[in-house]
Specification:
Layout lengths: L4 H14 L2 H10 L5 E7 L5 H10 L4 E8 L2 H13 L7 E6 L7 H5 L4 E5 L7 H14 L3 E14 L5 H12 L14 H11 L3 E6 L2 E3 L4 H20 L7 H12 L3 E12 L5
Parallel strand pairs: 1-2, 1-4, 2-3, 4-5
Antiparallel strand pairs: 5-8, 6-8, 7-8
Helix pairs in contact: 6-8, 7-9, 9-10
Protein name: Methyltransferase type 12
GO biological process, one term: methylation
Organism: Tistrella mobilis (strain KA081020-065)
Length: about 280
Amino acid sequence: MGFDPDWLALRAGFDTAARATALEARLARHVAGRHDIRVVDLGAGTGAGLVHLAPRLGARLRQSWCLVERDPVLIAAGRARLSVQPEAAGVAVNWLKADLATADLAPVLEGANLVHFTALIDLAGRAWLEDLAGALARAGVPVLGALTWDGRMGWDPAAATDADAVAGFARHQRRDKGLGGPALGPDAAPYFAEALRRHGFEVTLARSDWVIGPDHPAMHQAMVDGVAGALVDLVDGGEAPAGLVADFRAGRAAAGPGRLVVGHLDLLGIPPSLA
């Protein structure tokens, strides 16, 4: 499990445009009476979650962020990024190098007033999501999770092999990604929502779709490459026909970039003590 810094930079603008602002506004109202807040950001990457959310929590709110990340390359890139990022000005930042697959979540969440993550739980297995829900319940803190893929990916104009390719990508997403066994992939957000509800959380899911227009060829190419890379793994494992990768690439090249919608869900969970 891991992401390339260049991919994180490429997707950042689409993430910002897609996020469910209504959930963020509800969260901001929950913390409006506080003078300070400690946010734990799980799988923080290069700090995009802080850059996006910190200004939206309230300019007068004193913020301390603990950015949890296992990849030293992303931590180094994040330190450099946040040192010059205006949105991080005035925010106290601490990086915690930890592997979420093996870390004890209780000390990671200790002292948190809010837990945040982006593009994380679709890589996780059932047991890990249950552990996270339990840790959040014991800590009694709200959670805002953004941009969990929900299985939708549609191009317009479509190509003949798109549906087979996306179905293959979804199968690949359910492989073990190093976070607690076979990942739930597109089923992760509803599963995690129910896990939180069993602990008494008030949970809201909202769409946060990427909409990628024809004027973003680099993002279109990255998406085609990402799907094709997953299909290569399936073909190598005998789980997909040998010609699917070439047919998918040829079909997408002939159809042109057009418009691509990638479905995501954002999640806001409020513990019973704050609901």
